[in-house]
Design a protein that fits this description.
The longest helix is centred in the middle third of the chain and has 27 residues. The N and C termini lie far apart (47 Å). This protein has a four-stranded mixed β-sheet, covered by helices on one side. By secondary structure, it is an alpha+beta fold. Helix content is 52%, strand content 6%. The protein has nine helices and four strands; from the N terminus they run βαβαββααααααα. It folds into two domains: 80 residues, Glutaredoxin; 119 residues, Glutathione S-transferase Yfyf (Class Pi), Chain A, domain 2 (Up-down Bundle). Keywords: Transferase.
Length: 236
């Protein structure tokens, strides 16, 4: 089966967490909103036309007659269907729990530059963003990264143990990668405190399964999505 992945073109966003799983798993898919002639209106029309199990927002994955939305939900499905998560129920739920925790931090990273309203410009909420970003840098980043560091203690290489990555490892890579882009000064200070997290980021970056994707030019650059670089929001 070839899946249809729908997400806004031009930004990695939450769609990138799904792309990494599809690419690393060697799973056939089509990026529908990036096809020739498609645009945001194409995506919106497709989403509005889905009457059974309608998605609230992209990303969503079309698998035959099923439409699956919410990043963690999509990855839960792919993990079980394509062996990107442990075989046991306990293991799959543990990886899903890790994914949901990653999603929490992703949301907080987004809110550093849009703490009041996603529909307003950053320039209209700069004072609030500065305050939110300071709290994120000083309190939330160490708390989340410290949690993942503890999870990795005693493990050979991956979050769920074992010899092979899961989709949660790919997602933690994407989270750390986004933080390195958006908060380079802060991450330079914090990196030494979380060596296992940083080592996992390097391991995923070097996965042979992902090299064709990384070298293809299809991996979208950071910019106006979740992870944004504003110098005034970053500090060591």
């Amino acid at each position: 089966m070839t899946y249809d992945l729908w997400y806004w073109d031009g930004i990695p966003g939450r769609g990138e967490f799904v792309r990494l799983a599809l690419e690393a798993g060697g799973i056939a898919y089509r990026e529908r909103a990036r096809e020739p002639g498609a645009d945001g209106a194409t995506l919106a029309a497709d989403m509005a036309a889905r009457r059974e199990y309608p998605p609230f927002a992209p990303p969503y994955l079309v698998a035959g007659k099923m439409t699956l939305a919410q990043t963690a939900n999509i990855l839960l499905f792919l993990g079980e269907k394509h062996g990107l998560a442990p075989k046991s129920v306990e293991g799959r739920l543990w990886v899903n729990q890790l994914q949901l925790t990653i999603a929490d931090m992703v949301a907080e990273a987004h809110d550093t530059h849009h703490p009041i309203s996603s529909s307003d410009y950053y320039e209209d909420q700069k004072a609030e963003a500065a305050r939110r970003a300071r709290s994120f840098r000083e309190e939330r980043m160490p708390k989340f990264l410290g949690y993942f560091e503890r999870v990795l203690e005693g493990q050979q290489a991956w979050l769920a143990g074992g010899e092979r990555w899961t989709y949660a490892d790919l997602s933690l890579f994407q989270l750390v990668d986004g933080l390195l882009y958006a908060f380079p000064k802060r991450m330079a200070t914090l990196a030494a405190s979380y060596p296992k997290v940083m080592a996992l980021h390097a391991r995923v970056a070097a996965l042979p399964e992902l090299q064709p994707y990384f070298q293809s030019g299809r991996r979208l650059p950071y910019g106006d999505g979740i992870f944004r670089r504003y110098r005034e929001l970053d500090a060591a």
